[in-house]
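Anyone opening a protein record will find just a pair of labelled lines. A complete record is shown below as an example.
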Amino acid sequence: MDASLSWIKAYVPDLDCTDRDFFNRMTLFGTKTETYTRFDQNLEKIVVGRIQEIKPHPDADKLVICQVDVGKNSVGNTGVSEDGRVQIVTGAKNMKEGDLVPVVLDGGRVAASHGHEHNEGGADLKENGISIQAGKLRGVESYGMMCSIEELGSSRDFYPEAPENGLYIFEENSGVQPGDDAVAALGLHDTLFEFEITSNRVDCYAILGIAREAAAAYDLPFYKPDHQVKSEVDQAQDYIKVEVQDSVLCTHYCARICKDVHIAPSPKWMQRRLASCGIRPINNLVDITNYVMLEYGQPMHAYDLSAVAGNQILVRRARDGESFVTLDGVKRQLDRDVLMICDAEKEIGIAGIMGGENSMITDKVHTVLFEAATFQGANIRKSAKRIGLRTDASGFFEKGLDPANAIEAINRACALMEELHAGTVVAGMVEAGKPIEPLRRIPLEEGRINALLGTKLSKEEMIDYFKREEIGYDQKTGEVVVPSFRQDLHATCDLAEEVARFYGYDKIPVTLPKNSATTGGKSFRMYVRDKAEEVAQFSGFSQAYCYSFESPKVFDKLLLPKEAKERAAITISNPLGEDFSIMRTLPLGGILTSLSTNYSRRNKDVRLYEIANIYLPKELPLKDLPDEREQFTLGFYGEGDFYTMKGVVEEFLESLNMLEHMQLNPRETLYEGIQGRPYLHPGRQAEIQYQDPKTEELVKIGYLGELHPLVAANYGIKDRVYLAVIDIPSVLPYATFERRYHGIAKFPALSRDLSMVVPREILAGEIEQTIRNCAGEYLEKLELFDLYEGAQIQKGYKSMAYSLSFRSAKRTLSDEEVNSCMERILNGLKGMKIELRS
């Protein structure tokens, strides 16, 4: 961000400082200044001179001898006569007698070599300038030099009235006299500062923002430019109607009208301010919009109202496949993500980027429509990239602008139209879009701010600091009222930063940290992760690191039904490719891909595990952060079977003291019309459940099983694959590392065997749960030791045999007590249609 000191002083007129002081003060205040350059660098002893006489050189056809009046205040310089005249020999051709020109006297300096000696009129700038000495040119004394604008270190961008090759000639109405300081007359006693603005300070991408910062840094009054129109006619509503169809991409749109427009060059002061910021002056109308953009940081656009069909502005998205010719004559291809400015019949501009060739301003314009709007920054950035056109305007919109600023900016443009006699302003403004939001409020907590900074400032001192930057304070509520242009202030820590800037970072005392030091440590979740890794590694599994991004094709490979909720995945806006275009909602894709890679490389026995997140959106399109759930995933093929994987899961749950209440349920229906998980073998899978001992509620904590053969084929694996997934967040509420140790039993145990005929559909887990519930407190151990299905057992049934061990920690149990327990167990089993085997 570049800004000249003279332009800043236009709003802070009491600012009186050296360039170095301004550089240091602004940097310490938080508005970092990178460098500065003086426009009058290496310009010495340069005055205004009037050419009184021009004679040809006697010995050189290309040279002339001039008598120049440089004012009586120049008397005393070499070659200056008593009446203020000096003789100068020059090769310039564009002057005549009576012209006022800049003259460097003997011993003076200019910034560059003779511009008119270069084929293209350029200037050769010298680091230390060029010293001008009196001497003879082809035998004739010359006591100075008349200067071109390039020799003064400037260019025609700043002074478009200067000739391409030749001396700079002051205009007759410039008000200068012989002997005046020519550098001052040209406005070159100025300094250009380059500021490094952080992205959160959008307000400082404007000259007014920099000036406001300077006023606050020096505690001086800040004066906004006049944006009130003194004389208005008609009503804007009679000239134009505005409709915003997409208030998300265009939150606010303002339109004003100026008629009887007169196109002419803008005044010198405006041209030079624009040129100092790198913008080429064109005419008063274009220059006003560019000037307001630099002054307020608000891009504007002007349309020829006669080219706006139906006197209507419509802000809408483009249609896929549309094309549009911009002001630079290039045909741009559009899609529906590009926001367009349209009239009743056609598109007339790409919102926030560039207007259209079909509505451009010409010298014949009579009535102008001024546009100032607030467009969504992210959309403008993407649109500019998509169509390959990035402009100064799009650069401003990308940062995110203040809607209230658009109103002031468009009024300022109209005030300048009136001031420069460029047209007649029509009364009123036409607005559309969302209403401007109320000002943000932040509670002022001076104690917390002092604690953050290590200072002892009073609330009154802080409020005084805030007032210097137009930040208000509500005495009734004790809240700081944040102006709309300060979009970086959201919380107490932001206010603390403002206080620190005013107080001075260099004045904050050095103090030791006040917070109590901690030794650190792992969270409970991290300990559970460690235990999962420990169990997996001790069981022969190697850790895998898989991508969180995957392809939508993974859902079909896993045989998920079309209505499966897992298919509702978060889409990546700029994916590396289709294979990385969504955030995974299942943890299996990565593990199966890794197993497939190992299988294709003929690794016989592979065991892999991963602890990573899945990403479950709460709604689509995404409006809130997704539910990120950490999953402990295991997978293997080769040596082992279902019970191998079951043993690993049980070992993990045992390490968390959860195994006693674990159950396996193979009958869970997760999708309509499908029992179990479609990507697992229908007869070799189970949901892992945990029965809360307090509420007896069953909680799903994971699943395990053999991979469905079709899914295995989709991944190119011809061996049996076994998988298990544990949902870590579901485990955490019930996991514990506390262990209760019991001494060696003093009393003997009594054993009983129980052999029964069981309907085939009844699960072992259901039988064991019934036995435990009926046995009472003395049941110490329950173990299945025989399972048989065959010719000796009735069809549809199976034989199961359990060993039961009973013991009391206080005494020896009697047979009668154990028999009573067994009777309760048998009664419970009869209710399940289970009979003792004879």
Q: What stands out?
A: The first strand starts at residue 2 and ends at 4. The CA atoms of residues 569 and 583 lie 6 Å apart.
